[in-house]
Design goal:
The complex is a heterodimer of chains A (about 450) and B (about 220). Chain A is an alpha/beta fold. Chain A has 15 helices and 21 strands. The longest helix of chain A has 20 residues. The model of chain A has no long low-confidence stretch (mean pLDDT about 95). With about 220 residues, chain B is an alpha/beta fold. A 5-stranded parallel β-sheet of chain B has the order 2-1-3-4-5, sandwiched between helices. The termini of chain B are far apart. The chains are: A alpha/beta (about 450), B alpha/beta (about 220). At the A-B interface, α2 of A face α4 and α7 of B.
């Protein structure tokens, strides 16, 4: 479907207020600090899932103000794309609350969730930006996710090389890698016996290269999706808007990918929540996004599973659930790597905090995405299982669990201390793409601990 | 007010990001005969070191660091000319050419490192983002810099860091420069593997590495 709104976005990217990017960053930083004070937002490390509905509403209101006042910065024209409040509300009131992802027997419904929602969240799983070895290892890695019955969607790995070439942005090899990522994802889901499963992304940097993956036979189909990035913070470019133009014509799902930096220009958890709410609104209005990837990134440790991170994603989820129909997905980025109990503990906490707050899930990222082949399906399985266990859970009970659980891993989250674990090849049987005993045993032990705490893994 | 108190006040003004107080205390320091070198090194730098450490431990966040840097700059504008007049040489610790390497438009990490380097007394030439490898080298040659620092958030831009080291060798100027690399996907092991001289897990560590590497070079 052609989007006339995208024409309006482009027009405003040429006509909006001109500003140097550094000035936009400073304005965002200063205004966010003011909004945190004006709305009296306060991070509470003992109450990671806020029980204060009015604070979630305040965060929403502050995010809306920030978007309306600053707009969405276009790096191409150095102008701010601005919309009036009535225009934003018109878009927000028109959002779909139910999507069918994938096709045939493998299709899943992704529905707008609310706080303490009893309905199941959807998990978009995959290596989420982590570097992977090309070819069969990549296929097997994705298959390890697709084989897990609880997982609903796969994709999003990054290749280190293609045909032995190091992949550089804008080169022919990047375009080839985009095409092959789509093909290999389709091969993985077919091998897992789920050929209609939704593919959520191919992690390629250049928006123009991503288009190569759109292929109704061997690649990304209209029942799949791609992520379109925002630049940090609250910024876009014509390359990204042009990708959306093509995706809308093609008919696949548009995912609004945001990587808000906790500790960056937005400041602490309170400011990060405000800025990222504004980024969600920008995604709905300017990207025509069907869903939103909340890929919170700690400025030092590159994860989103510490107390500050969990509080931030929870208040955002609650803000969306109470004030909008925007479907947001918590991209669970962990500090530790596969094969370690720390990664499983991080995933378990992320699953509970996000699910009870009305979010869907993505995961798991590990080791800040720095280490090759450090992604497996097993941690994503636990992430989803914990999210399912938390469906219908009261926020008070979620906090009780988190206050018991988070102290067990938080001392390991520093980038210099987080255990790196092992590679997919070391932890999985490469023939069957199933976990080896060592990794399976670690998972069983953690599930045992969770069961003792009264968590019912379904 | 004692000279020790003035030094403490300078440090506090930086820690609290109070540019007005930093400037006022700097003027007071000169009026009361505090050595401007000492005011910078034992007042301002001490405060900035504390802010850098706190940022590294996430006790404070980037906005607080930026405000501290603003306070630092307000004070340096007063103290540095006096120090130059007195000592006759620049108080700058060294010169750095920095940029987000080619293919990457993410610059928050590079901006943090550039700001912390400036605040710690380095002369910084920031070339922005998507900087071609030869542009970094040309600028380093033009400014007679000590350090070339490259950052990226993207694995697809990491090969350009290898190209940087290769081109420095090809031009026969590798030994003239300390090369530092960093950013999201870059690890300490990879930095060592490609032959870079320095790396930092965060901005504070990058500054400490730059100081240490420069000290070693100057001691040769």
């Amino acid at each position: 479907m052609r989007s006339y709104r995208l024409d309006e976005v482009t027009k405003r990217a040429f006509e909006g207020p001109y500003m140097e990017e550094r000035d936009f960053d400073m304005k965002l930083m200063k205004r966010t600090r003011e909004l945190v004070k004006e709305h009296d937002l306060r991070f509470n490390p003992e109450e990671l899932v806020t029980l204060d509905d009015s604070m979630a509403d305040d965060a929403w209101e502050a995010g809306m103000k920030l978007f309306l006042e600053l707009g969405f910065y276009c790096q191409t024209t150095k102008r701010c794309i601005k919309f009036e409040e009535w225009e934003v509300k018109k878009v927000l009131n028109s959002l779909s609350t139910s999507l069918t992802l994938g096709a045939g027997k493998d299709a899943v419904k992704m529905e707008m969730r609310r706080i303490e929602d009893p309905t199941s969240p959807v998990i978009h799983a995959g290596p989420t930006g982590t570097l992977c070895t090309e070819g069969d290892v990549y296929v097997k890695t994705l298959r390890s996710y697709a084989q897990e019955a609880v997982i609903d969607s796969v994709g999003a790995g990054t290749l280190a090389t293609i045909d032995g070439f190091k992949i550089r942005k804008g080169t022919p090899q990047e375009f080839r890698a985009a095409r092959m990522l789509g093909r290999w994802a389709r091969q993985a889901i077919s091998e897992a016996g789920r050929p209609g499963m939704h593919i959520n992304d191919i992690a390629i940097v250049s928006p123009e290269a991503k288009i190569c993956a759109l292929d109704p036979v061997n690649g990304i189909r209209p029942t799949d999706g791609l992520l379109v990035s925002q630049m940090i913070e609250l910024k876009t470019s014509f390359a990204h808007l042009a990708l959306i133009e093509h995706m809308l014509s093609y008919g696949c799902f548009v995912g609004n990918l945001m990587t808000p930096i906790l500790g960056g220009y937005s400041g602490g958890p309170e400011g990060t929540a405000i800025v990222n709410i504004a980024e969600h609104i920008a995604g709905a209005v300017c990207y025509n996004a069907n869903y939103h990837y909340l890929s919170l990134t700690n400025v030092r440790n590159l994860n989103g599973t510490d107390r500050a991170g969990l509080w931030t994603i929870s208040i955002e989820g609650q803000a969306f659930a109470r004030n909008s129909d925007m479907m947001s997905i918590y991209d669970c980025y962990c500090a530790a790597g596969p094969g370690t109990d720390v990664l499983l503990r991080e995933a378990a906490a992320g699953g509970v905090a996000s699910s009870v707050s009305g979010l869907h899930l993505m995961g798991c990222g590990s080791c800040g995405g720095k280490l090759l082949d450090h992604s497996t399906g097993l941690e994503a399985r636990l992430l989803k299982e914990m999210a399912l266990a938390a469906t219908g859970m009261r926020r008070e009970d979620a906090n009780e669990f988190l206050n018991t659980w988070v102290p067990q891993y938080e001392k390991w989250l520093d980038v210099t201390k987080a255990p790196k674990g092992k590679t997919f090849q070391e932890l999985y049987d490469l023939g069957s793409a199933k976990p080896k005993k060592e990794w399976q045993k670690k998972y069983d032990e953690i599930v045992g601990e969770l069961t003792e705490l009264g968590i019912e893994i379904r | 007010m004692s000279k020790v108190q003035i030094l403490d006040d300078l440090a506090d003004s930086v820690i609290n990001g109070d540019a007005e107080k930093a400037a006022g205390t700097s003027r007071k320091a000169l009026r009361t005969g505090v050595d401007p070198f000492k005011a910078i090194s034992e007042g301002l730098m001490k405060g900035m070191a504390k802010v850098g450490e706190d940022f590294s431990k996430l006790k404070v966040y980037l906005p607080e660091v930026m405000m501290a840097a603003e306070a630092m700059n307000a004070a340096l504008a007063i103290l540095e000319p006096a120090a130059l007049k007195k000592g006759g040489k620049s108080v700058k610790k060294g010169k750095v050419v920095i940029g987000t390497i080619y293919g990457d438009i993410h610059d928050i990490g590079k901006n943090i490192v550039a700001m912390l380097l400036r605040a710690n007394g380095f002369e910084v030439h920031d070339l922005g983002r998507e900087v071609p490898v030869d542009a970094l080298i040309n600028k380093a040659e033009e400014t007679k810099s000590d350090i070339i620092a490259a950052s990226t958030l993207l694995s697809t831009s990491m090969p350009y860091m290898e190209d940087l080291l290769a081109l420095l060798k090809e031009k026969g100027v590798r030994k003239k420069y300390i090369v530092m690399v960093g950013g999201g996907p870059v690890t300490r092991e990879w930095a060592a593997q490609i032959g870079a001289d320095g790396y930092g897990d965060d901005g504070d560590e990058a500054v400490k590495a730059a100081q240490e590497l420069l000290r070693k070079v100057k001691a040769r």
